[in-house]
Amino acid sequence: MTATTVTTINTSIIDSNTTSAKTVISEKPSKASKNTKSNHPSALTPSIVQKLCAPVARKLGVKELYLFGSVAKGTANQNSDVDFIYEMQNDSSIDCETAYIVSKKQMLTEALSKCLGRKIDLVNKRYVTQPLVNEDAELQRKAFVTEINTQPIFQIV
User: Entry's InterPro entries (predicted)?
Assistant: First the structure.
């Protein structure tokens, strides 16, 4: 495994209510040095997550996948779950049937869990970017968006 150099990219996750954008970080391998960390789940880093999960996610039709939470912050332990924001290729279409979306989400959850040996939490990108009609649910969504906008987010796909 090679060491990584963190670079900021143009991709943003946007809260449509506040039009604030969260800068997303992409890790690119650096050829200068070697990283001696193993692929053991307790040693998860964003670059290891990207290496293990990106091919699987692409194969399942993931358009965008972002890592956030304790693994992204570097505070995860061996019992930590792995948090992702995702968007499937057809997810943004209103015509997509709910059963299809649920099935794809379940397949993605299982595949990522198998890759990392951890429990996976998936949040659909629409939840982050589109307001909800229910007032209480919208308050919870806004609190979640505010919280994740204070944390590092890494683009995996």
Answer: NT_sf, Polymerase_NTP_transf_dom, Type-VII_TA_antitoxin
